[in-house]
Each structure stands twice: as C-alpha cells, then as structure tokens.
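alcohol dehydrogenase (NADP(+))
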Amino acid sequence: MTTTVAAYAAPAAKAPLERTTIERREVGEFDVLIDIKFAGICHSDIHQAREGWGEAIFPMVPGHEIAGVVSEVGSGVTKYRAGDRVGVGCMVDSCRECENCEAGLEQYCLKGNVGTYNALDKSGEPTYGGYSEKIVVDEAFVVRIPDGLALDVAAPLLCAGITTYSPLKHWNAGPGKKVAVLGFGGLGHMGVKIAHALGAEVTVLSQSLRKKDDGLRLGADHYYATSDPKTFDELRGSFDLILSTVSAPLDLDAFLSLLRTDGAFVNVGAPEEPVALNLFSVIGGRKTLAGSGIGGIRETQEMLDFCAEHGLGSEIELIDAAEINVAYERVLSSDVRYRFVIDTATI
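Predicted structure tokens:
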C-alpha cells in the first residue's frame, strides 16, 4: 500500500510552494523507507520550480539534500536497517548497466539517471523530493551519514558537498595546487572547506569583500573581489584550478586569464542563459574549460566519510517549512550564510 505524507510543493511554474500531501510507494524488496529529518534548499530547487532550466513536472516537491533515519527496509535490503542515519542526494536510480554506471558514475548514466524530484521513475511515475516527511528509495541510492556529522549540517553535503568534492578530487586539488573558488555561497563555502582539507592553497573570488572574514575562517588563504578590476591584473596566470559555483553568466575570458598553463576552469554552477567564449582564451595556455555534476554513489559516501573525518559540515540557517518561499527570495538575493535547511518536523 502507498503511504500518504505531508509535503511542500510548487503547484505550477513560478507559483509559491504550499503545503499538500503526496503518495509514497510501498516499500519493495530492495527499498528503504526514510523518515526525513532535514532537507537543504539548493539553488537548483529554485531553477527547477521556476522552470529556469526548461519545462518541468508539476506539482513539484523539490529537495535533493535529504538527511534522515531509516524506519523500514524491504526483505532483500542488506546495507541498512531501522535506526540507521542516512542520506539521499540528487538521484534515486539509473540504468545500472551502462559503462558509466558500472564504473560508479551513475550521475552520468548514458540512459539518464532518475532525479530525486522533477523526474519520472522506471514505472513512469513522477518523483518527489525531500520537502516532505518520508521518502522511499532503493538501497543502492542511499548513503550512510557517519556518526561524526549532525544530520542538519550533513543534509547540504548531499548536493553542495559532493558537487564540489567531485571536481576537486578529479582535478587533483591538494598540496602544491593553487585553487580558486568562484562564488562564496551554498556551494562555494563547501568548496573552500573541502579544498582546504585536501591541502590546496585556496583563494575565494567573490563579487565583494563582504564575506571575507567568513571565507578566511572557513579555510581560504586569500580573498579577492571580482568587482575590482585590479584583481584580474594581480592574479593573472595564478591558478591551477578555478571552481565556479556561480549560476549567472560570467565573463569567461576574464576568468580564464587567471589560469596557469594547463589550468582548468570547472563549472558546477549552471546559468539559465548561454554564455559567450573567445576560443583564444583556452588555446593560449592550453587551458581547459570544463563542467562537473554531482558524484556517483561510491564517491558520495567517500565525501561524507571525508567530511566526518575533517569535521566539515555545512554552515546552515535552520528554518520552518512555512518559511520556504521567503528563503527562496533570500537565496536569489544572496542573503543566506550559507545554506537554508528545512526542519521537516514543521511540515
């Protein structure tokens, strides 16, 4: 039998989210039923609820930064049992057969992974995310939250943490490397924490110096304002890696000039509008312009274990569910330090 649970949903594109109920499927043989305790608010939620990235499925229950406790498992589940502290990130299934899935890169499933929300599952039913009381997920797409991480500060790691950890690891951020994190918000602050813990020399590139003290406190060695033209003169040719967490169009040519020879500019922020590029900006210096999504399930677990080992939780502002619409507006005006997290007991 399905289970009726309370949730917050956007009934249509750009409409305010409102309290409603949704149906969760019955717990199957390999399923895990999770009592959601906390759900982070990601800028991706806003993009999708407002159809900034294209046509979406409504009603939409956003939320792919989910932390909770297992309350029931299917008869075939071997990884989890009732009472375990677990998380669910941006995907809840994939084909599991293609070369990427077999390599642990389910996020790049060649047939397309199934998003935690705003997607259709293998039965053709829409998926609903973490702004809700409970969720049912196949055990293969559930990760364990280590005891060293509180659930509220762990929730944003399921997107913001893995979205920054994956490219930092892939492009070998570590001792001897100069890494710049462009944008100091929900993703950027975790990028700084993780890059610092990996041993890199970390610079924040932000529009202003308003958050400089926070940046230095969280692990940055340097902090520059991109609104100051002198920044681009002073830092020309400085970085091995620039991790861009910005979801607005950028002057890519200007930022590419800050890379060393063979440096990489990696986008994890996804603007709604196309961006322009002069190809000479990458030809000169053999530079790489790249993008990165989330990580696979194995890498997400690795990230959580790494964060627990180094004491890295997200900097959060805990809110009641009734404050979601206000929180969305505050995210758009950069008025959050640094991740809103919904206390789902208030739904």
